[in-house]
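B., you asked whether I could sanity-check this one before it goes into the benchmark set. Here's the sequence:
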Amino acid sequence: MSGGPAAVGPTAADWAAAVAAVRGLHADARVLLICHVNPDGDALGSMLGFALGLRRLGVRHLQATFPGPPGVPEPFRWLPGVELLVPQDDAYPEPDLVICFDAASESRLGDLADRLGRGTSLVLDHHASNTGFGDVNLVDPHAAATSVVALGLLDRLGVPLDAATATGLYVALTTDTGSFRFEATTPAVHEMAARLLATGIRPGDVSRRVFDTRPFGAVRLFGEVLGRATLEPAAADGHGLVWTYATRDDLTRHDQPAYVLEALIDSVRCTAEADVSCVVKQSGDAEWAVSMRSKGAVDVSRVAVGLGGGGHRFAAGFTGRGPLDDVIGRIRAALTGAVLTAPPA
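And here's what the prediction gave me:
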C-alpha cells in the first residue's frame, strides 16, 4: 500500500487496509501515535482526537508523542487526551501499530522515524507532497485538515463521536482553515464542523483559547517583529512578497517560547500589496524555520518542495540554512515561475 505522493486521495482498498490494521490488533497490542515536529493544532488535535476514539474501541496500550522537546504549546495544553502524551524517549520502542498524523515525510518525525519499521505503519495526512512512507497511506490532498481523514477512519471503525473526541478534531479543523477563512473551507468543511459542534463543543471557548489569548510579552514581540517587515512588490512575478524574521535573541529578550511565533504569519499575510507572505524564524545557528502563505496567485508548496520542505498550494514551509539574506534570496528566486496559471479551484 506504500507509494509516492498522493494526487487523488485514499482508495476503497486504502480505507479497508486501514480499518483492518486497527481491527486486527490483539488485546495487548501497543499502539503508538506520532505527529510532526513542532506540532500545530491539526497535528495535535487530529492525533489526540483519534487517540480518544481508539480508547473507545477498547485499545488499552496507547501512547501519543512527537519529536523534540515534550512541551505542548500553551494554546493546546487543555485538549482532551493530552494525558496520553509521552516524551519521545519514553515512547514504545517496539509498537505493534504506528499511526502518523499530519506528517508529509519521515523526516518530519525526527528521531521517532525509526519506529516505522517496528510494526505496521499507518499514515493519516492531507499534504499533496506526502511521500507515501507508510505501509498504509490515507492521504487526501483535498481535505482541509488531517482531522477530516481521521474522522473518516473513525466513522469506518464505527466509533461514535463524543465531545472529547470531537474537540480535538474541531481544533484541528479550525486551525488549518484559519477559523474557516482559508480557501480550503468548503461546504463539506462546515458540515463536518456542524457535526462536531453537535456533540456540545463551545466554539467561542475554543476560539478564545486557541486564537485570542497570548501573553503580553508575545504582543510586544509581535510589535517588534512586524516593525521590521519588508514589502517587495516586484517579487513573485509582480504579485508581491512581504516578509519578516524573528531571532532567538528576540524570544529571549521578551521571555517567550518559540511557539508563539506560529500565529505571526496571520498578521503578516493581511498585507494588501502582497500575494505571498513569509515569516522566517531562527531555530538554530544559521538555521531558520520558514512559513509561507499565498492568497491564491502563487503555489507556495512548489517553492517549499523545491527548497526541501512541503505543504499546500497556499500554505507551506521549509527549513532554511545559512545567513538570513541567503534564505530570503532563495525564496525570492523560487517565487519566479511559481505563479499559478489558473485560478484556484
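One thing to flag: Residues 1-5 have pLDDT under 50 and may be disordered. Otherwise nothing jumped out at me.
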